[in-house]
């Protein structure tokens, strides 16, 4: 069996590993400037794309799959993973697509239609327009009816794009236009709808797998730590749910999946507040944060995706699925947390990922790798597993302090600050938590940054005089820290 991975970076590495363990042939695709990337070197075969944009080019990706004599294609996440046209094009060529069927992708790609399905299945939802709003006036009329605040959402959106919150009619007029423009630019679809915005909620999602026999769930993940509607930290299980609530939200997810005749892997997302769940959407693909679910259930979700696609069945029964321990994941990005989280492009000069008990690192970089400007600057996903949540937090902090990355800035100081925050430790984080506590978190980030500089200064002071240049760099970093302290005041 020859499987092509229509993706790059850490998720391509993750899929290649699963393919290799199953005894199949892995085929990578890469843009011209990534021929030496780790995922390309790991694959059994590799084919060059014409440009970085080719990961979004249905025709070119299908042509390469044919040229490579691929029996199947795994799309990973992002890029073409939810594109029904790509899925159908592969099927038309007799190539197996590892993921949900085209008709499911088309239905769930429309958030309004997905909401209708949830309502029909008896799953709770928030009040919203059940048709895209055609004008600002229509949006204002609906908002007046249900009351502010409201949120404007792209019908075909994802990844936190095309979403704007409005608390007044004036804000809504601006928010609708901005969301529509973002949606058109990101998804080629400017349609938006209006939904009641619920304050102080948690973001809960349920991992599902479905085969010819039915729908299975692997329990939930808590993805409430977010910035601009994008997830930063994910954990499983949620520290906020009771066992009864855990079973209830899983049953809701299964109900929605059955209503759309779901097949393969996906995630059903909900908002949670005061013991109640509200359906948000279904992501018909592998999620970035799938690893934390694997750590607490022992199920290899990527292998199960392949098994379902090739054999029509998963390798487990629902009765086999138990929650064992606690897992947390942080996304390490090449970005500067002290300068508005701007991307930090450039070459990775030193790279030593952490290890030890309970630590898993999914990455796709190495020393000498250049963080490109045209992709999401994700470096690695660092995951910890413990017998309980406290042990998982302790192990994750230890791992992040061991992580050595130089040449680019990273958001590791942010993660260390969050893991020390009392609200996070108590499991009381809500989706706007980071926004509300950013000033306090930034102070803690600066402290963690100073500690790391002090450790580096001590290490360099013990080295030969040829390290004078590096010690000079540390002095400059201390000066930068002092300057940031002054500006914060």
Question: Overview of this structure, please?
Answer:
The chain is α+β, with helices and mostly antiparallel strands and 489 residues long. It folds into 4 domains: 2-98, Rossmann fold (3-Layer(aba) Sandwich); 127-196, ATP-grasp fold, A domain (Dna Ligase, domain 1, 2-Layer Sandwich); 202-434, ATP-grasp fold, B domain (D-amino Acid Aminotransferase, Chain A, domain 1, 2-Layer Sandwich); 439-488. It is built from 16 helices and 22 strands. It has helices at residues 9-21, 38-42, 58-67, 84-92, 102-108, 111-120, 136-146, 169-187, 243-259, 290-297, 301-311, 389-402, 412-419, 422-425, 433-461, 468-488, and strands spanning 2-5, 25-30, 45-48, 72-74, 96-97, 150-158, 161-166, 192-196, 202-211, 214-227, 230-236, 264-273, 276-283, 326-333, 335-336, 342-343, 346-347, 350-352, 359-363, 370-371, 378-386, 404-406. Strands 13-12-9-10-11-14-21-19 form an 8-stranded antiparallel β-sheet, with helices on both faces. The protein has a 5-stranded parallel β-sheet with strand order 3-2-1-4-5, with helices on both faces. The protein has a 3-stranded antiparallel β-sheet with strand order 7-6-8. Strand 15 (335-336) and strand 16 form a beta hairpin. The longest helix has 29 residues, at 433-461. The protein is globular and about 70 Å long. The N and C termini lie far apart (61 Å).
